[in-house]
Write a structure and sequence with these properties.
The chain is α/β, with parallel strands linked by helices. 38% of the residues lie in helices and 17% in strands. The chain contains 12 helices and 10 strands. The protein has a 10-stranded mixed beta sheet, with helices on both faces. Helix 1 packs antiparallel against helix 2. It starts with a helix and ends in a 7-residue tail after the last strand.
Amino acid sequence: MVDTAERYRRFATAEARGHSPTYERLATAIADLPDLLALIDELPPARRQPNLLLAAVRFLGGPVDDVAAFREWTRVHWARVRATMLERRTQTNEPGRCSVLLPVLARLPQPLALIEVGASAGLCLYPDRYRYRYDGGTALGPSDSAVVLECDTTGAVPLPATLPEVVWRAGVDLNPLDVADPQDARWLECLVWPEQHQRLARLRDALRIARVEPPTLVRGDLNGTIRDLVAAAPGEATPVVLHSAVLAYLPPEERETFTATMRELGCPWISNEAPGVLPTVDRRLPAGPPSDRLLFTLALNEHPLARTGPHGQRLEWLPARTAP
């Protein structure tokens, strides 16, 4: 098992570098601070995540611009930080990922009943309420939408002419967040890294859209609830199960259970996950590693369709032979 110091070093170099100088600097420093590492090691392994610690400190009003101030504040307020890290989860809710889901959703039999697993606050359940611009072209979607998603594409992406028709939207999460709750909204804001101002503005706009028609979110384990959610979808709609950057948090045996369940249900299943999460998807990918900006694989019913950027900013359509 990777120790905590190495975990923070890897986060600094492999994740934060090039995306957040603040988090790269803090994570690098934490890896060499035995007093903070000892406090972090008091937590269960799954709660020692750099993202979780840094978001918790920001959520509580702690400083992140100076390493010395961060260290002192975190030590003094550790009881509160610890409680927040045990209560909260890294539930980044990125509406930008709808830009890579849209070409798949638009090709399915309409209308749609969307079911998201690991939904957080459910902001990816509103692909019909956002506006899209691919490769800087003409925008698609409601002209009055405050959320405009920009996406650069490569390959023969089947860009839709119209948005999908969504008549029902629901989700499941171990700790669903309420779009109308100021504290839940603030937690989502703190999960956006300090320098990512555009993402933060987009998140706030998406929250305002969701508050008009809050999604139906169920608290529970995805393996224990997915059958009931699919069964609850309106009969006239195509039930579609989707998720993005979720299954990596499950043990391999639970991923296998979920995969078996989705095969039995037989409804469209859209996954957008990192390499190694769904082995059947990985085996069907063309040879060659993705670039560091194309971290996820978009798949329909375990058949890879595209490689995508982590926030929906890039979409590289794969050769037709990999499609179902």
